[in-house]
Each structure stands twice: as structure tokens, then as C-alpha cells.
Amino acid sequence: MAENLRLARLYLVMLAIVTVGRWGLGFYEVPYEKGTDKLSIVMLTLFASLFYGAFIRRWRGYRILQVVGLTMTLALLGQVVILLSTAASYALGVDSYFSNPIALNQKAAVGFAQAMQIRAGGLVANTLLNGIAGALGWVMGAALPSSPK
Questions:
Q1: pTM (2 decimals)?
Q2: What is the DSSP string of 59-121?
Q3: Residue 130 within any structural domain of the chain
């Protein structure tokens, strides 16, 4: 796990940038529909899983299960940020990109408990999805040149 966290440093920097950006879009009252596709934690994590899977295979010699473990770690970190940001939005009474009904796949605003259930489901589903994306990246990594020795 320590090695996964060490390798995840670049992802964590990008995760922080995107998270701050999403909070900022909400504070500047950019409509959710207009701004969410510009800074998406889920999309960042999916692309990171594909790229990490490919590059870690080729340049670090990781096996597929090691890559899946790493990319699931990335997803877990991203989903925990989403969950905590959603909880903070509700606790502070702030209308943010994390508490927006569309972000929660709802037609209207929902209460805190329901929002946390939705986010918990997302945590499980997105962690699994990113494990699959990491495995796909690992497969694609065969096309990369080997690292010089």
C-alpha cells in the first residue's frame, strides 16, 4: 500500500487541483451543467487508471493484479474525496458541485443520509470500474516501448 501511495503522488496533486476547481466553480455559481464536464474527479480517475496501468506495466514491470490494486487505490482516494466533499457541502449548508442533485443522479435535492448512500454506492462501483480500467491500461501498455536498462 505504501508503494501505491508513493506512485499516486502525481494523481493526488491532480486530484487536489480538480477538487479545488470544482469547489471554486460552485462558489462562483457556474451552473453545474456548464462546468462539471470541465473538472470531473471521476473522469480524472478513469484516465489516470488507464495511463497508470499502461505505464506502470511497461516501466515498472507490474503484473496485472498489481496494476488493478494500484488503480483501485486511486479510485478509492478519489471517491473518498467526493464523499467527504459531499458531507462538507451538507454540513456547511453550501450548494456545491458535490451536493447538486444531478451529481447525485437525482431529479431534486436529497437529504444528507440519502446523499451518503448514493456516494457509498459510487465508492464501490467506481473502485471496481477503475480496477477494470487499470487492467485495460495494462493490456494497452504492451504497445509502449520498454524502459532503457
A1: 0.92
A2: HH---HHHHHHHHHHHHHHHHHHHHHHHHHHHHHT---TTT-TTTTT-SS---HHHHHHHHHH
A3: yes
Measured between alpha carbons, how far is residue 103 from residues 6, 22, 40, 107 in Å? 30, 12, 11, 10
pLDDT band at residue 141 using 50, 70 and 90 as cut-offs: very high
Indicate the DSSP class of residue 29.
T
Q: Which three cell numbers stand for residue 112?
A: 444528507
As for how many domains the chain has, the answer is 1
pLDDT digits (tens, 9 = 90+) for 12-67: 999 999 999 999 999 999 999 999 999 999 999 999 999 999 999 988 999 999 99
Residue with cell 503484473: 63
**Tally of CB atoms within 10 A around 146:** 8
